[in-house]
Amino acid sequence: MNTAKHASLTCQSKRALAVIALGAMIVFGSTVPVSADLTLDSAYREVSASVSVGPVTLVSDSDTSTSDGAFIEGAAAPFLTGISVAGQASAIIEILSDGLNAGGIGSVGIVAADLGDGLIGLPQLGTTFLAASIFDITFTPAVDSVYHVIGGALNVGDPGTYASFLFEEVGGAVLISETGTAGFAQSGGLVGGTTYHLMASATAEFASGGLTALNGGGLPDLEGLNADWAFDLQVCPEPIPAPGAAVLGLIGMGCVGWVKRRFA
């Protein structure tokens, strides 16, 4: 093979690769990061557990948070005939003031003896066990943004348990609404300057009939109730095209096409 011709083709190939690389950079590198801001308007997280006899609350325990960051708490209310518990491990993280990552898991449970209606002639005071785990935030992105809700799950057990997930525009459209046992994931767009509300909750309630140790000579029934939620929310600004991106993109595609024709 002619050495000079081979060297010429090699140089042409190098020039072709350089032009292709330039075209690709123009076409695919024509967006710039958004300098934005996202406001966390409110944050409320709670775990609570209680036991009441009639109108009187005998045992209660709770923890709450009204700020961002991690929230890893539990609550328990033990009583003679059972216990109610609630837990939550969640986090709210503002990412460089431009985005948001929020989510976690929450659960509730009750184990209690159902004492029926009590024995004839004795007071029929009911015992009520309650437990709740709540995650509630509102936020406002300054610019149009994208969101991803992943790993969403709700689980409920026996009657008396409840779980829900709601993601909505305040005063506007509902983006996600789930109750009961469900799995969910969704992505979409958020409008800049609009406030959004997200809430996940799990509750359990059990009421026994009376305060007697036995019901008609039989053993009391042992009841177990459970409910939980889980999700992960990610919010980030939409990238915007760089100035003149459309024109530069056309030039880049034209360069790639010319190289293909030139060295075909």
Shape: elongated
The largest pleated sheet is described as: 6 strands, antiparallel
* First-residue to last-residue Cα separation: 20 Å
Q: What is the average per-residue confidence, as pLDDT, rounded to a whole number?
A: 78
Question: Into how many domains do the coordinates divide?
Answer: 2
The largest beta-sheet arranges its strands as 3-2-7-12-9-10
- What's the SSE pattern? HEEEEEEEEEEEEEEH
Helix content: 10-25%
Q: Strand pairing plus helix content: what structural class?
A: alpha+beta
Radius of gyration: 30 Å
How many H/I helices?
A: 2
Low-confidence stretches: 5-9, 16-35, 117-124, 210-219
Q: What's the total number of strands?
A: 14
In what range is the share of β-strand residues? over 45%
Describe what this molecule looks like in 3D:
The two termini are 20 Å apart. A six-stranded antiparallel β-sheet has the order 3-2-7-12-9-10, with no helix packed on it. A six-stranded antiparallel β-sheet has the order 4-5-6-13-8-11, with no helix packed on it. 17% of the residues lie in helices and 58% in strands. It is built from two helices and 14 strands; from the N terminus they run αββββββββββββββα. The chain has helices spanning 3-28, 245-262; strands at 31-32, 38-53, 56-65, 69-79, 82-95, 99-114, 127-141, 145-156, 161-169, 174-179, 182-190, 196-208, 221-237, 240-241. It has two domains: 3-33 and 241-262; 38-238, no CATH class. The protein is an alpha+beta fold and 264 residues long.
